[in-house]
Amino acid sequence: MRRTSIVLIICGVLFLAGAGAWTTFAGSKLVKLPLNTNTTLQYTGHFVTYVNASTGAALARPVSTALTIDRTIKGVASESSSSTAILTEHLALHYAGTTLYENNVYAINRTSMDNVASARAYTFARGNPYPAVGSYYLTLPMNIKPGVTRMNIWKPETATTYPLVALRSGAEPSSLDGLSVAWFSGVLPLTPVAPYERTALAQRGLPMTITPASVEAKLTSEGVPVAALTATLIPKLTPTQLHEVLTVLSTPVALHYYAFGSGLVATNTRTGAIIKLQSLIDGIAVAPETNGLHTLIGVMTAYPSVKGVPAALRALRTLAAAPPQPVYELQYTQTPAAVALMVSNTKSQLRQISLVTYYIPIGLLVLGLLLLAGGIVLRLRRRRMLAALAVPTPVPTPSEEPKPARRVA
């Protein structure tokens, strides 16, 4: 009994210590991004075109066509580690009989969920920059506190990030298919595209420059009659000014492309899983290089009395200050089936987290207490038994010894 009680007490103490150690160390080590991720999501919406793709001229009315996006995210276990997960993202965009493909590779810290530096990660093609360290994209951090947790989202088209902020309007549902979610909004202002995105746009047929003839036609349509003005101004220009004007009018004008966007994100704050992307806009805008316009403005400013110059200056200044012209927008939202899939995956993940962080340590704690209590009870019973055995048996004194009986004849 003594040996059994000692064993039970020692085991109880060990299980109690194990519960504490599990809660402190093991739980945090085991709750991490799984490497068996393999999810395909779908989004639907519209592809809206604002300009003629070949000429760059604005359309009188935007053209909208149906858009479908298939997105597959897979974990690459063979290239991942205990701390870093390698995940691939494959996108297929279908619209107007066209399909565009995009591939990205992300290296993600499996506990903090942010992007980390890795030679394996890239944007669009191997050799391009990997996502900004510390940013998020495929998932958000665990245990998000809306309004407190700071999150910067990676934008592949610009190789920059933008902030994701808590949505406080309360207009969106607090749960999706029975799963609690918090809503966030993000806005990417007009931002120059990355070199690899510019290359991709060129491969899709978008112009990178405007020809001199198109520049002249554009200026004329905007109130700057180039032919008439040059005929009037040339006799008055200095050799230097003449060279500047002729150079501007004979050189193709470079086009600069910008990305912009906005949208809503619903996430489960415990896991950081992105449950739904809603009302997303991913757009591209374009603006011509304005150095030539400013050169013309500088030259013409010296001749305000020449006929047509004041009106031309007003038109040139308006053109130089004009914001980028939208080229196209992808307007889309995650499908209900894709939302249901993410809800199911996240609920499964939550069950696993509860098992690791709650049920296992509670089980160890309860088992440890039972073993400890059992050992203590056995030890107390043994003490009572020993105490009972230690009570002395009464021994008769000499005076109390019985006298021998008389013999009767």
Secondary structure elements and pairings:
Elements (H helix, E strand, L loop, with lengths): L1 H29 L7 E14 L6 E18 L8 E12 L2 E12 L12 E2 L27 E5 L4 E7 L8 E2 L2 E2 L1 E11 L2 H9 L5 E2 L1 H10 L4 H8 L5 H12 L2 E15 L6 E15 L2 H10 L8 H13 L3 E10 L1 H54 L20
Antiparallel strand pairs: 1-2, 1-14, 2-3, 3-4, 4-5, 6-7, 7-10, 8-9, 10-12, 11-12, 12-13, 13-14
Helix pairs in contact: 1-8, 5-6, 6-7
Describe the structure.
This protein is of the alpha+beta class and 409 residues long. It has helices spanning 2-30, 195-203, 212-221, 226-233, 239-250, 291-300, 309-321, 336-389; strands spanning 38-51, 58-75, 84-95, 98-109, 122-123, 151-155, 160-166, 175-176, 179-180, 182-192, 209-210, 253-267, 274-288, 325-334. It folds into 2 domains: 1-30 and 350-384; 31-334, no CATH class. Helix content is 35%, strand content 31%. Strands 1, 2, 3, 4, 5, 6, 7, 10, 11, 12, 13 and 14 form a 12-stranded antiparallel sheet that branches. A two-stranded antiparallel sheet has the order 8-9. Helix 1 (2-30) packs antiparallel against helix 8 (336-389). The longest helix has 54 residues, at 336-389. The two termini are 61 Å apart. The mean pLDDT is 86.
